[in-house]
Design a protein that fits this description.
This protein is of the alpha+beta class. It is 21% helix and 37% strand. It has a five-stranded antiparallel sheet, with no helix packed on it. The chain has a four-stranded antiparallel sheet with strand order 3-4-5-6, with no helix packed on it. A four-stranded antiparallel sheet has the order 7-8-9-10, with no helix packed on it. A hairpin with a 5-residue loop joins strand 5 and strand 6. The radius of gyration is 40 Å and the shape is elongated. Belongs to the WD repeat PRL1/PRL2 family. Keywords: Repeat, WD repeat.
Amino acid sequence: MVDVSATNNEASQQSQSESSTQQHHNAQYQNDVDTPQQKQLLNLVFRSMKRTHDFFFHDYAIPPEPDTKADELWRSTKVRSEYGSVLKQVQDAKRRREEELLNLPKNASNGIVLAPPVPVPSAAPLAIGDSSSAEGTTVISGHTGWVRCVDVEPGNEWFATGGADRIVKIWDLATGKLRLSLTGHVSAVRACKVSHRHPFLFTGGEDKQVKCWDLEYNKVIRHYHGHLSAVQDLSIHPTLDILVTCARDATARVWDMRTKAQIHCFTGHTNTVASVVTQATDPQIITGSHDTTIRLWDLAAGRSIATLTHHKKSVRALTLHPSLYMFASGGADNIKQWKCPEGEFIQNLSGHNAIVNSLVCNEDGVLISGGDNGSMYFWDWKSGFCFQKEQSKAQPGSIDSEAGIFAMAFDQSGSRLITGEADKTIKMYREDETAVQVFHILPFFLNEVETM
């Protein structure tokens, strides 16, 4: 028989020991809490819990409102990236349906009188295939950016162009067909020149690079490193194996064409050097800059021998006369003629009311200036008389401000003019074979006659 009283006594003793242990722990915890650090920590914890509760109590278990703008952005991005082609097909189908509704049925009579077709003026280019032929004008398309430079090869069979699309293109001079596209520049191509003594094409771009292309293999064989900013122009010496480049870093650099070594670094300009020309006689290098000055350089000594300060605005274009010992410069103010070797000022050619971006002269003494508004002025070199004015028209799909002329070049015969323009086209002009010679009485001669 189990002793119940003994069992109860054991249970009571065990409960008393557990309660005493719990009291001991509570007393120990109370002693720990009574410290200032513990009280401060508990206070911070409770305050944080209360603040969190107050923040989220009013919208507890309520879903957030949808972000409509983010959802629209996500949907539009998904439509463009994944369903862009489908969307274009839908739009094309809608446009075709609208065009079909606008077309009149055959033999329909609704009182509309159709006028006879009007012939297009001869001066307007006709878009036919890759080129458009007008009377004396051919328009060539192919670049997808501004055409910034043009040069004709010595054999007069093809010419090269470079543009803001980073591509150098080779065109057939007779047909205007594209022969070759050269890629390698990572920014706009601003200058291209064909060597008259080697099968090389030199290009410079806004990526600070100057490249030498081997036209037999159609690849780059040399790089000329040194410019710190965009290359604006380059020129090949007619008798020496040297290359001269100018850039936005206000310097002109002379390179050994074969070894790629920098021979000289001409400093002195205080702004972008926009144009450079070279000749066999002194001064062998002439530069024009946005600092409004023209500098003549001694190639052997590597220094400036003269600074011409007649221009009041940026000098953007230079050209040498093919036979006379003279050169011309153009900018936003006017065109000036100079005599070598000292750079003696000869005369002003005023009247081209535009920023002159390009100058070119042929053996007959015809100087042509191209402006940023698409205007071309034809000057007689000796008298300075402007005997013809032309206006380049922007192609369909272009705006009027895209009629600017950036580059010009004569072919080797001097009878065809090639221009690179802002409407992404190349235009070729030829002499009018039916034109007759016209004599102009020059103003200064007329004044002398009246005085006599």
